[in-house]
Amino acid sequence: MKTARDHQLKRPVKLVVIKQSLDGQPFWPIPNPPPPTIDACCEVFAEYSVFSLPKQHKISRGDLLIDIPSMIQDSYWAYCSWCYLVEYVSIDNTSCVVIAKQVNIHDIVKLPDRIYLTNDDFIKLHKPNPIDDLDAFIASLTIKETFNSHPRFAILKQLSDNHTFWPVPSPLFLKECAHLVWKSMRYYLFCLFGQHNISYNDLLIDRKLYYYLVKQVSVRETFCFAFTESVDVVKLHDKIYLENDFIQLHKPKPIDDLAEFVASLTIKDVFANQWPTFTFSATKTLFST
């Protein structure tokens, strides 16, 4: 704290202080009307920011500091403001110094009356995975229109429900434009522009060779939402398996008598270099588009 006080904090900011829910729930209610604005100064040090607030304020560890408070009621607040989680407070007679950690905007879920700092907290409280009612879930989100990735996908379909793999067309074109709306753990919600022949259990592949299994689809007039789960796969030259399905289909039978099996091997068997090779998606070198 001595080092922080020795710095002359020059950048002026306007802040509001928001307290966590009184019952300990992992969200911060947004007061209506918003709390009073505080004129402060700030400097950034790596992932932390140091604030100097004039006068004494009722502020403590675990509070949120929100800058540009005039935007707090706006649905796009997360892209216009910064959010900081207070980690240390030093108060004297005329001011207080606060050290707070900046929160990544992609982790924030903002509803009209509250803020969640992580998607995981929001999911644990409100929605099981996969989502029970996709349309209701989409309506509850603050859809993030900017600063998100815009992947292109290839959509693969299984030949039938009885097949455990997806045939790979040649060539494989990544042509479906999408927008990443939301993610949590292994789950991703994409908005695909236009109408598409996409349904449950399709496999999406993007240019970075990530694979997403479609769990639910909500179709609109000019776009559709696909709720997906990131999956690990085994890709052969003409088909793709989910990793666990491939292992179940192709795992070797247990050896009844290992000593007898080893004794039966020849030197040629031991030094054989003809084992089949299978490439997993984690290598990221499976094909080019």
Give a description of the structure.
- Helices cover 13% and strands 37% of the residues.
- It contains 6 helices and 19 strands.
- It folds into 2 domains: 2-119, Thrombin, subunit H; 145-289, no CATH class.
- With 289 residues, the protein is mostly beta strands.
- The protein has helices at 2-6, 119-126, 134-140, 243-250, 258-264, 267-270, and strands at residues 11-18, 28-29, 38-45, 48-54, 64-67, 83-91, 95-102, 109-111, 114-116, 152-156, 165-167, 176-184, 187-193, 203-206, 211-219, 223-230, 233-235, 239-242, 279-280.
- A 6-stranded antiparallel β-barrel has the order 1-3-4-7-6-5. The protein has a 6-stranded antiparallel barrel with strand order 10-12-13-16-15-14. Strands 11-18-17-19 form a 4-stranded antiparallel sheet.
- The model is unreliable at 1-6 and 275-289 (pLDDT under 50).
- The radius of gyration is 26 Å and the shape is elongated.
- The DSSP helix count reads 6
Characterize the overall form. elongated
Name the helix and strand elements from N-terminus to C-terminus, one letter apiece: HEEEEEEEEEHHEEEEEEEEEHHHE
Low-confidence stretches: 1-6, 275-289
Roughly how many Å is the radius of gyration? 26 Å
